[in-house]
């Protein structure tokens, strides 16, 4: 019988993730305990391959989609749990909320789901597709291989009113961020580790340009002293090249934006965190100590990422008879 692992690296990742998941069962909800590795092994054995192949294919023509997929899963899991509710189109849905206006990667999820519906109709949930796609995006960017338990079901409710109270805004204090993470069963360490997602991806200028400005004479003026002066000037110049700050984008990581590494934390030590929430991690003892550790030890970051990402991926999951398996990810059945 052929091995389900294509490499020793994948086998090691699976065994590590299995041990991690078993330990997490003591901490997470009983619903998450009903997830399992290789959940689709008999019902749709090619499910994870199809998702991975779709992500790779999409990123070959648009590399930016990898960071978008990672951000998309955050916005799903933090609002009502990992139930694919962010994917639903329509007035009054999570997707319609202004806080989600800049999200991307929806087409990749829908493409993977369309293929799955051909080979395994009504079997694989959009919630699982989204989590797997984000996992695969990190791997494609050079990040760790993470074995993810599956078996999530799709939510049947998607309401815009649930978005703002549950997502992190770019001007939040550390206390506010910790409170939201804690409400999801995530720790201070998880906050710092998952913030490492900002080592990839890009952001619109209007999400950070309040940190600097030009005075009446057109000269640069730094507003947020926690931001490196020269870096702020570079950002101002990039954002000033367009009349619309909602469309101009800047890489989250000015150094290695296409690689999933620990450069984000090195940037924070150099006061080059793009968002106010990034810089805030250096201003609180609870988070700064973790930033310093991760900046100096990439292996530690990647190991902790595996743990924190898995914890996030099981927030509020629907299993068993809860929810449904959507035919299309953009609409409930």
UniProtKB/TrEMBL annotation:
Listed GO biological process terms: hydrogen peroxide catabolic process; response to oxidative stress; response to stress
EC class: oxidoreductase
Alphabetical keyword list: Calcium, Disulfide bond, Heme, Hydrogen peroxide, Iron, Metal-binding, Oxidoreductase, Peroxidase, Secreted, Signal
InterPro entries membership: Haem_peroxidase, Haem_peroxidase_sf, Peroxidase_pln, Peroxidases_heam-ligand_BS, Secretory_peroxidase
Iron as UniProt keyword: yes
Site (Transition state stabilizer): 71
EC numbers, comma separated: 1.11.1.7
Record field: catalytic activity: 2 a phenolic donor + H2O2 = 2 a phenolic radical donor + 2 H2O
UniProt-annotated binding residues for Ca(2+) 1: 76, 79, 81, 83, 85, 94
Positions annotated to bind heme b: 198
One GO cellular component, as annotated: plant-type cell wall
Cofactor notes: Binds 2 calcium ions per subunit.
Matches recorded under SUPFAM superfamilies: Heme-dependent peroxidases
Signal peptide range: 1-33
Gene Ontology MF: a single term: metal ion binding
Domain Plant heme peroxidase family profile: 34-333
Alphabetical list of CDD domains matching this protein: secretory_peroxidase (cd00693)
Function text: Removal of H(2)O(2), oxidation of toxic reductants, biosynthesis and degradation of lignin, suberization, auxin catabolism, response to environmental stresses such as wounding, pathogen attack and oxidative stress. These functions might be dependent on each isozyme/isoform in each plant tissue.
PANTHER family cross-referenced by the UniProt entry: PEROXIDASE 6, PTHR31517
Family statement drawn from the similarity comment of this UniProt entry: Belongs to the peroxidase family. Classical plant (class III) peroxidase subfamily.
Annotated protein name in UniProt: Peroxidase
Organism: Brassica campestris (Field mustard)
């Amino acid at each position: 019988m052929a091995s389900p692992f294509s490499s020793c690296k994948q086998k090691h990742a699976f065994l590590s993730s299995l041990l991690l998941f078993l330990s997490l069962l003591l901490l997470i909800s009983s619903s998450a305990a009903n997830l399992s590795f290789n959940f689709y092994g008999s019902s749709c054995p090619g499910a994870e391959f199809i998702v991975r192949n779709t992500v790779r294919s999409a990123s070959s023509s648009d590399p930016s989609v990898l960071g978008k997929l990672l951000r998309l899963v955050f916005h799903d899991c933090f609002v009502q749990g990992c139930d694919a509710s962010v994917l639903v189109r329509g007035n009054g849905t999570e997707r319609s909320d202004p806080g989600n206006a800049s999200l991307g990667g929806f087409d990749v999820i829908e493409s993977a789901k369309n293929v799955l519906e051909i080979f395994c109709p009504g079997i694989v949930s959009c919630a699982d597709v989204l989590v797997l796609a984000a996992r695969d995006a990190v791997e494609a960017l050079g990040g760790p291989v993470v074995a993810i338990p599956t078996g999530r079901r799709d939510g049947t409710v998607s309401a815009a009113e649930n978005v703002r109270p549950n997502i992190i805004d770019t001007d939040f204090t550390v206390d506010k961020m910790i409170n939201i993470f804690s409400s999801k069963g995530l720790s201070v360490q998880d906050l710092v580790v998952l913030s490492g997602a900002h080592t990839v991806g890009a952001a619109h200028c209007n999400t950070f340009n309040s940190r600097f400005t030009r005075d009446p004479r057109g000269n640069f003026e730094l507003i947020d002293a926690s931001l490196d002066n020269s870096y702020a000037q570079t950002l101002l110049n990039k954002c000033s090249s367009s009349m619309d700050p909602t469309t101009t984008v800047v890489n989250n990581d000015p150094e290695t934006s296409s690689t999933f590494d620990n450069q984000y934390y090195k940037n924070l030590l150099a006061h080059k965190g793009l968002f106010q929430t990034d810089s805030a991690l250096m201003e609180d003892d609870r988070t700064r100590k973790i930033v310093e550790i991760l900046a100096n030890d990439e292996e530690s970051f990647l190991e902790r990422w595996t743990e924190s990402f898995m914890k996030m991926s099981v927030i509020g999951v629907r299993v068993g008879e809860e929810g449904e398996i959507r035919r299309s990810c953009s609409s409930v059945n």
